[in-house]
Amino acid sequence: MKTKLNYTTPHYHKESKPMNCPCGTKQAYDHCCGLYIEKKQIPSTALCLMRSRFSAYALNNIDYIASTMRGAPRQGFSKKKLLLENADIQWHSLAIIDATDEMGNAVALCIAEKSSL
Question: 0.70 exceeded by the pTM?
Answer without folding.
Answer: yes
